[in-house]
Design a protein that fits this description.
The protein is of the alpha/beta class. It contains ten helices and twelve strands. The protein folds into two domains: 144 residues, Rossmann fold (3-Layer(aba) Sandwich), CATH 3.40.50.720; 120 residues, 2-Layer Sandwich (Dihydrodipicolinate Reductase, domain 2). It has a six-stranded parallel sheet with strand order 3-2-1-4-5-6, sandwiched between helices. A six-stranded mixed sheet has the order 8-9-10-7-11-12. Helix 4 links the parallel strand 4 and strand 5. The radius of gyration is 19 Å and the shape is globular.
């Protein structure tokens, strides 16, 4: 799915009238958000599913009456858009292959957990002239997304404080649908929820010019950031919070006052808007601000923080 005016190496038409979308991944996130949103999307066709576990892929495909693929490259050949619900280090090399096949990239966060892999995805999208969008929930879920855009238009910011405390691995062992995720166990809240916090702090306060990272109890990571605007911010991130302490919040303070991130609930709807953004980028040729290049910048910041934390 080549953007208008793009210089793709694929011979596929620029944008299909009704783009076909293939889903890669079969985990809880794919079942709860990606698949329902793709099936409900009026401007595209949910075409099929590939997964690393063939039986799970077959089950998910059967639930929506779509084709099951046993080869991701066959899915790329049949589809205009590749939608990813995979661990980041599985997603990244497959996204490079999808871009080479001419597919638009609807990516999950983080795009990758190494700077090299993240830039490889962004470079592949540029090289093959395909559009990319990363599903950063706060940038698509309403009213949070509109709130971010409103704050980004303001000036005079002084400071901001964000927290995203998930109870995926709580101290009391309360079961979570995402607790069986090996990459989340290995990389923790810094990489899983850190992109969400940064996806708001960066467009509002400006690019990060310095980062200091420290560990707290359990999985807690605390970030102290300076931004291009001169503002300072903090972010407290974890997947190991007690259930009673879990929650999300973000507050910005400046010359115009104090503004707090509103609640949001419509995550499947937000995913549909992410797909809308991708299709718009493909049709117009104008990169979306939440594209793979932006996600690569988030990976750079997170990698810098991780390097300070050590093993």
């Amino acid at each position: 799915m080549t953007p208008a005016g793009g210089l793709a190496e694929s011979s596929r038409p620029a944008v299909s009238a009704r783009p076909r979308v293939g889903l890669l991944g079969t985990g809880p996130w794919a079942r709860r958000t990606h698949a329902p949103a793709l099936a409900a999307h009026a401007g595209s066709e949910f075409a099929g599913v590939w997964g690393r576990r063939p039986e799970a892929a077959a089950e998910l495909a059967d639930a929506y009456g779509v084709k099951v693929y046993d080869d991701p490259d066959a899915l790329f050949a049949d589809c205009d858009v590749a939608a990813f619900a995979l661990p980041p280090d599985v997603q990244a090399p497959l996204a490079v292959r999808a871009a080479a096949a001419g597919c638009g990239l609807l990516l999950d966060k983080p795009v990758a957990t190494t700077v090299g892999d993240a830039h490889a995805v962004a470079d592949a999208a540029d090289r093959h002239g395909v559009a990319s969008v990363v599903f950063l929930t706060l940038r698509f879920a309403e009213p949070a997304a509109a709130w971010v855009e409103e704050q980004a238009r303001r000036a005079g910011w002084f400071t901001a404080a964000a927290h995203w405390l998930g109870a995926v691995f709580p101290p009391d062992g309360t079961p979570s649908a995402y607790a069986d995720s090996p990459w989340r166990k290995a990389k923790g809240g810094l990489w899983d929820v850190g992109p969400h916090a940064l996806s708001v702090l960066v467009p509002v306060l400006g690019d990060v010019t310095s980062v200091t990272a420290a560990r707290g109890p359990c999985d807690v990571v605390q970030l102290a950031l300076r931004h291009a605007s001169g503002a300072a911010s903090t972010a407290v991130l974890s997947l190991g919070a007690p259930v009673a302490a879990a929650g999300v919040g973000l507050e910005v303070r400046g010359t115009e006052g104090v503004f707090s991130l509103p609640n949001w609930t419509d995550v499947p709807g937000a995913y549909g808007r992410a797909l809308d953004a991708l299709l718009t980028a493909a049709r117009t040729g104008a990169p979306d601000p939440r594209d793979a290049r932006f996600a690569a910048r988030l990976t750079e910041i997170l990698a810098e923080a991780e390097g300070q934390l050590g093993a």
